[in-house]
Amino acid sequence: MDTGWLAAVERSALSAAIRDSLWLYPAVETVHLLGLATLVGCAAAFDLRLLGVSRRLPARATARHLLRCARGGFALAAVSGILLFVSDPVTIAANPAFRWKLGFIAVAGLNALRFHIGPFRTAETWDQNLPAPLSARVAAAVSLTVWAAAVTAGRLIAYV
Description:
The protein has helices spanning about 5-10, 15-20, 25-50, 60-85, 90-95, 95-115, 135-155. The protein has one domain (about 15-155). It is an all-alpha fold and about 160 residues long.
């Protein structure tokens, strides 16, 4: 792997500030965890709705509320995650757990896209008190699994 650009990022003032500050790295990590908790918590709640929990709640209204929060959590986690990466890019980029985490996040994004251009387009027919179609339930199960895997891989970055 060509690490030239990663080494340049690592020599940057931003990288040094995050890495060398007593409080900056832990503050960014805390923001990252709060973003992840918001993202994964909201996505999991919506996934559980698709899997049949609280069918009396309208799926479309639940999506409008929870997925807006999930997107905000994702934005927070992404920005803070980039800052965490910048603190030690050469080492982190070489870490297999980091690569797996990025792969799981990509799968989660593709799964969400497939859900929104597929089964969610017919949500008015199963919006409330009816089971979601099999394709929506499969998307929910994949989402729960892949986000759990991404969080696990992210945690393993410190140990691999």
